[in-house]
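Input:
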Amino acid sequence: MQITSRLTVAAHTLAVIEYFKNAKVTSDFIASSVGVNPVVIRRILLQLKDAGLIDVARGSGGATLKKQPRDITLLDIYRAVDCVEEGGLFHFHEKPNPDCPVGGRIHQALDKSLAKAQQAMEESLSQTTLADILKTFAPA
Amino acid sequence: MQITSRLTVAAHTLAVIEYFKNAKVTSDFIASSVGVNPVVIRRILLQLKDAGLIDVARGSGGATLKKQPRDITLLDIYRAVDCVEEGGLFHFHEKPNPDCPVGGRIHQALDKSLAKAQQAMEESLSQTTLADILKTFAPA
DNA sequence: TCAGTTGTAATCAGAAAGGTTACAACAATT
DNA sequence: AATTGTTGTAACCTTTCTGATTACAACTGA
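Output:
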């Protein structure tokens, strides 16, 4: 089981928007670079727009960054595209037996450690910015 | 999208095995504490056994820890039950366009950061042991 | 008005998880 | 040796979630 590819698709999308910022970057264009259906890209553009990371021109078309690449982190993207729902990264089994001394307190016993692990991952994501990612594509 | 509940089920399972170690702990008994089907527990017991964390008595029945609770970490459990496949925690979109300057190098641009995030999470999981978890169930 | 795009709904197929049934293999007990 | 309880394992089903795809209304600029 893995985290949705929406994170890598969204990061790819933002990289394309910035790399080709002198042209009109449409969902079709992005889709051809990412290799997915344009509608998938549009849905992600919507999420990135809702998160305040980009502007999308309705009608005329084209997406542009709303913030500097150095001010957009992987964590921002991760959160924007809802990789993980409210319940957290780890999925708890839902029916532990409340009448069992272990089952009744298993949540309490695990939640803190799992939350820490999730935070550690998010903290790590927050240390990479879109600017870092774009360095890979910079002309030599 | 979330990580399989196998991690929490497996941790719950090990806690039950240790907490009730003076009795015979069968898959049916564990299943009633966890609140899932006994076959699900058996599948997980198999994985924990393959990982060298427990012994399972075929025929007569009952599972026992093979290591000290302090020597079993959440990371050991996480790895034992295959929460994440080889490809890593993050799922990469599979068909980036190799002919696009961005699509052709997006993997290279993201892989290191994503691997770091995954490692940060695993490192955090490795800091909690079964002994820590059992403290919650210790008699007052 | 027209052409090109975005926003969005609806539907589909495929994958993966967990639930469930069933039963052979096995070990201890009688 | 037969019985009993349990594990190992296959098979099948249902549910859920992506992402793919089609379709089309809404919108913008030329």
